[in-house]
Write a structure and sequence with these properties.
Layout: E1 11-15, E2 21-31, E3 40-50, E4 53-62, H1 71-94, H2 99-102, H3 109-119
Antiparallel strand pairs: 1-2, 2-3, 3-4
Length: 120
């Protein structure tokens, strides 16, 4: 909602060798929530566009100041981190660990500890 208050976000884009457009938008010092003591974060948005259609989009926040010089590297790092986390959760849910069934999301310490041991 805070982003809607800015008239325009800084934007840059490039087209790769395959004709895919990579569009990046960002804004520094955006309040994380609407409270009085909100932490300010730096917002990054990425869109991948093929044949006029958005085929991938994501957004991240960071404490690193975002500039035109570092936006592409920050978005690549955010996308890699998301991919690693997503693959890990997919493995835990669908490759025999059945993490959501075996350990649940209860408030008991044992289920959380068993989950951590499985990750290790």
């Amino acid at each position: 909602e805070w982003l809607n208050d800015y008239p325009e976000l800084p934007t840059t884009e490039y087209t790769d060798k395959k004709g895919c457009i990579h569009r990046f938008r960002w804004q520094n010092k955006v309040p994380l929530h609407g409270g009085a003591n909100a932490i300010e974060v730096n917002y990054i948005e990425y869109q991948q566009i093929k044949a006029g259609a958005v085929t991938y989009k994501n957004s991240w926040v960071t404490d690193i100041e975002v500039t035109k010089e570092n936006i592409i590297d920050l978005a690549k790092a955010g996308r890699c981190r998301w991919k690693i986390e997503n693959e890990c959760f997919n493995t835990l849910k669908n490759q025999g660990y059945h993490i959501e069934h075996n350990y649940g999301h209860g408030s008991e310490n044992l289920s959380y500890n068993m989950y951590l041991l499985t990750l290790l």
